Amino acid sequence: MIDEAELERLAHLVEECAEVQKEAMKIVRHGWIGTDPTNGRVYDNREMLRNEIINLMGTLSRMAYEGDIFFSDIKLVSGSILDANPYMRYQSKIVKE
Q1: Residue 13 in 3-state DSSP?
Q2: What distances in angstroms separate CA 5 from CA 20, 81, 84, 91, one per listed residue?
Q3: pLDDT of residue 70
Q4: By the 8 A CB rule, do 59 and 12 touch?
Q5: Helix, strand, or coil (residue 89)
Q6: What is the reported pTM?
Q7: Contact 33/44 with Cβ under 8 angstroms?
């Protein structure tokens, strides 16, 4: 059974993931720099994505602190992300030191 605190953290995780996705799609559609057509304001989409990733990392940290996930799991994932992914055709190989 999931308690209210766990449910709240999961809802926050979903929200933060959606915000990262939204900012990433802005970059796909409009590039790293975007302009609001209604007022001409220029946005640094890279910075907006960075901010949302930081928020997501904070959410993951809170979940690890509460025991929902484990930091060791996050560490394992961060190491495997450097491994070659056969479905990503345009990424350069990363040399591990």
Answers
A1: helix
A2: 23, 30, 37, 39
A3: 82
A4: yes
A5: coil
A6: 0.77
A7: yes
Q: How many CB atoms lie within 10 A of CB 52?
A: 19
Residue 74 lies in a domain: yes
Distances (CA, A) of 60 to 53, 66, 67: 10, 10, 10
Tell me whether residue 97 is in a domain. no
Number of domains in the chain: 1
> How many angstroms from the chain centroid is the CA of residue 82?
16
**In contact, 42 and 61? CB cutoff 8 Å:** no
Residue 25's domain comprises 4-80
Q: What is the pLDDT of residues 45-92, one digit of tens each?
A: 999 999 999 999 999 989 988 999 887 766 655 555 556 566 667 766
Q: Which of 31, 51, 52 minimizes the C-alpha distance to 42?
A: 31
Establish if 93 belongs to a structural domain.
Answer: no
Residue 68 to residue 10: CA distance in whole angstroms = 9
Distance CA 11, CA 37 (A): 32
